[in-house]
Amino acid sequence: MKNSQHLLGLIERIGNLLRLEERELGKADGLQPVHVQVLEYLSLCNRFSNTPLSLSRYLGISKGTVSQSVIVLENKGLIKKVQDNNDRRIVHLVLSETGKNVVKNAFANERWSNTCERLPAQQRERMAEDLAQLLLELTRQHSMQSFGVCRTCKYFTYENSNYSCALLQIPLKASETAKLCHEHCFFDSKTGSDESLSVP
Ligand code: SF4
Q1: How many domains is the chain partitioned into structurally?
Q2: Does the C-beta of 181 come closer than 6 Å to ligand 1?
Q3: 39: number of CA atoms within 13 Å, CB side?
Q4: What pLDDT is recorded for position 22?
């Protein structure tokens, strides 16, 4: 119990510091922290996960807040809406070149990355594995989507030097395998079991 409270305190403190960083990062471009979070998510997610609905689920914010943020970012020329080729009802949110530059400049100065870079690579990997396990447990508890990358997903396949997704039945480029995905489903490396999270 004591350990879990200590862990919670550490994670909350890190979260607070990151929120502070987001406030600072957006200031130069007149952006609120939520706008920075939207830009950050869009720079990290794959082409199936850049919809307003995925954004709302990933950030845990209402669809109304997402709509307002999209309007602000679109008016500033940082993102654009692109209709899905197969389903005209679906809109994808894509970073414009200016948006990409804002993300690039903002995160080049980010204290978080600089601090992480100073930790030994092995320690970073260990921490990432432990935090991924914690996230897996929490997403199960909340019956939420995990939003992970391909290499930790049970649908990911790698054969004859080719990557593919068994769920979407499509080949994947190497660069796509490192992107956040709303269809992601953790493979639990510690127990060897996997679990499908309910994706409405
Ligand atoms: S393998 Fe998993 S994470 Fe990768 S695209 Fe498919 S569903 Fe998404």
Answers
A1: 2
A2: yes
A3: 30
A4: 82
Decide whether any atom of ligand 1 lies within 6 Å of the 184 Cβ: yes
Residue 81 lies in domain: 2-114
The response to whether residue 183 sits with its C-beta less than 6 Å from ligand 1 reads yes
Token digits for 189? 């490396």
pLDDT of residue 195: 43
Distance of CA 136 to the CA centre of its chain: 14
Residues 126 and 33 in one domain: no
Q: Are residues 9 and 93 in the same domain?
A: yes
Report the separation in Å between the CA atom of 157 and the middle of ligand 1, taken as the mean of its atom positions: 9
Tokens 């200031």 -> residue: 27
Q: Is the pLDDT of residue 15 over 80?
A: yes
How many residues belong to the chain?
200
The residue contributing the CA closest to ligand 1 atom 4 is 150
Same structural domain, 149 and 173? yes
Q: Quick one: 87 and 155 in the same domain?
A: no
Q: How far apart are CA 35 and CA 2, in angstroms?
A: 36
What secondary structure letter does DSSP report for 85?
A: S
Closest atom of ligand 1 to CA, residue 46: 5
Is residue 141 domain-shared with residue 100, that is, in the same domain?
A: no
Question: Is residue 106 domain-shared with residue 133, that is, in the same domain?
Answer: no
Query: pLDDT, tens digit, for every residue of 94-121?
Result: 999 999 998 888 777 678 888 888 999 9
Mean pLDDT across 81-96: 95
Report the CATH number that the domain containing residue 84 is assigned in CATH: 1.10.10.10
pLDDT in tens, 162-176: 999 999 999 999 999
